[in-house]
Design a protein that fits this description.
binds zinc ion; 8-stranded parallel beta sheet; 11 helices; TIM Barrel; hydrolase; alpha/beta; two-stranded antiparallel sheet; single chain
Length: 348
């Protein structure tokens, strides 16, 4: 009953309050489409500042600098705020091609005395390395195995969860290979498997089918980002397959209108809508299959840049859940027991 963290194995019943989907350091700049208009281009080159925070609250990708978190001092301060609010375990799903740094994570984990669990595998097609076409399912599976068994990026720091494995609106062949490889590794290791699905797509079923056909256990799969364009029927159908669904955009309340629709292609739900959807799912009997996180991947999500930080779900969302009639016991299940069960590798 254990979980591998960046500093070694811990018991899964000792994880405390868990954020199951976050990014301490991340660099998504290469994934942000550039604009041809001079004024937009000029704005995209600015640094995140009070003068553009209003714009970024509507379109978070208007300034490219918002898509990178790389300041160690800032991240330390933000993680400390998470700890002080009562958090104990932080799952970091930044993968190799979007800025993963296992040694930095291990250093912060030791210094702050919090658990950090790191992810492995490949993110969406757009971030894949140039030789991805040459990789086979078996070679990708072996890479993921190695990150779990021996260590990541030339270190002996081991991954403790698979993902977030990236899929797009239409699943690319290389994404499918990665899904199949992840399923093989999931079956062998018993680890939880996070899958990033496109913010507006409903291809979670297809993802689950591919994974389970190749041996993955449904109750170790988590479909991410279902809380951007909330569709209750879709969620119910996914949950009936036995997988977890993750409300992981707490703190993101954008509205990019048609002038700004690139990464954000449609409306973006607000926290109160997320909480109300969770309450409904609990009433429908799905309490044990819901995960909750902030998926911090923008500077403006952090206190240091005007946001609510990693502690947002603790500081602001727990009271909102209470206001909406979710009980203390149910909140504990959502934030402690569910992620512990998802992360548990089923081994001693
Ligand atoms: Zn993420």
């Amino acid at each position: 009953m254990s979980v591998m963290t960046v500093t070694g194995k811990v018991r899964s019943d000792s994880l405390g309050l868990v954020l199951p989907h976050e990014h301490a350091f991340i660099d998504l700049r290469s994934l942000v489409p550039s604009s041809s208009e001079i004024s937009r281009k000029k704005m995209s080159q600015e640094q995140v500042a009070l003068t553009n925070i209003g714009k970024l609250m509507r379109n978070p990708y208007a300034v490219l600098d918002n898509a990178v978190i790389d300041d160690e001092t800032v991240v330390r301060d933000e993680l400390l705020k998470f700890k002080k609010a009562g958090g104990k375990t932080f799952v970091d799903l930044t993968l190799r091609d979007i800025g993963r740094d296992p040694a930095l994570l291990a250093g912060l984990s030791r210094e702050l005395d919090i658990n950090i669990v790191a992810g492995c595998g490949y993110y969406i097609n757009k971030s894949h390395p140039s030789d991805m076409d040459n990789k086979t399912v078996d070679s990708i599976a072996e890479e993921i195995f190695n990150e779990i068994r021996y260590g990541m990026d030339g270190t002996d720091i081991k991954a403790g969860v698979i993902g977030e494995i990236g899929t797009s609106e239409i699943i690319y062949p290389n994404e499918k290979k990665t899904l199949i490889a992840s399923a093989i590794v999931q079956k062998e290791t018993g680890l939880g498997l996070h899958v990033h699905t496109d913010l507006y797509a409903t291809n979670g079923y297809e993802v689950v089918n591919i994974l389970t056909e190749h041996g993955a256990t449904a109750d170790k799969i988590c479909i991410n980002h279902v809380d951007v364009d909330i569709k209750m029927d879709y969620l119910k159908d996914l949950l009936n397959l036995g997988v977890y669904v993750e409300f992981d955009n707490f703190g993101k309340e954008f509205y990019a209108d048609k002038r700004d629709r690139s990464v954000l292609r449609g409306p973006f739900a607000r926290d109160i809508e997320r909480v109300r959807a969770i309450k409904k799912l609990i009433d429908w009997g799905f309490l044990s299959k819901i995960l909750i996180s902030n998926d911090v991947c923008l500077k403006t999500c952090l206190h240091n840049y005007g946001g609510w930080g990693y502690d947002h779900v603790i500081t602001n969302i727990i009271p909102m859940m209470e206001d909406e009639g979710i009980t203390t016991e149910q909140i504990k299940t959502l934030m402690c027991s569910n992620p512990a069960e998802f992360l548990d590798d089923g081994k001693d």
